[in-house]
Design a protein that fits this description.
The chain contains no helices and eleven strands. Strands 2, 4, 5, 6, 9, 10 and 11 form a seven-stranded mixed sheet that branches. Strands 1-3-8-7 form a four-stranded antiparallel sheet, with no helix packed on it. Strand 4 and strand 5 form a beta hairpin. It is globular.
Length: 125
């Protein structure tokens, strides 16, 4: 059974940093593209960052240069290092696994069939 468990969210002031983690259970982690999404109150969920099993990286423009996605296949863990946080980064953050192994190129939520429960990030000005 696939399970994704996020942690690391919290409240920080603008300019601060947080590192989110997502531990995966129930499948061969290294075979799959993984992504981070976020959803702010009253807004649609958006893709933030993607990392492929082949090292492919993708970021939404609003986080480029501030966020870094990485993975540790030995620990079955996905990370999102978030620096220079802004109030507009406030959202619930979700990790997600691509539905199929060895596939993926864009941060399209329709391609991701497995989701964690989310971790809240709040950035105050």
């Amino acid at each position: 059974q696939v399970q994704l468990v996020e942690s690391g969210g919290g409240s920080v002031q603008a300019g601060g940093s947080l590192r989110l983690s997502c531990v995966a259970f129930g499948y061969t982690f290294e075979y799959y593209y993984m992504a981070w999404f976020r959803q702010a109150p009253g807004k649609e969920r958006e893709g933030v960052a993607l990392i492929g099993n082949d090292g492919t990286l993708r970021y939404v423009d609003s986080v480029k240069g501030r966020f870094t996605v990485s993975r540790d296949n030995d620990k079955n863990t996905l990370y999102l290092q978030m620096n220079s946080l802004k109030p507009e980064d406030t959202a619930m953050y979700y990790c997600a696994r691509h539905t199929f192994p060895f596939r993926g190129n864009s941060i399209n939520q329709a391609d991701f069939g497995y989701w964690g429960q989310g971790t809240q990030v709040t950035v105050s000005s």
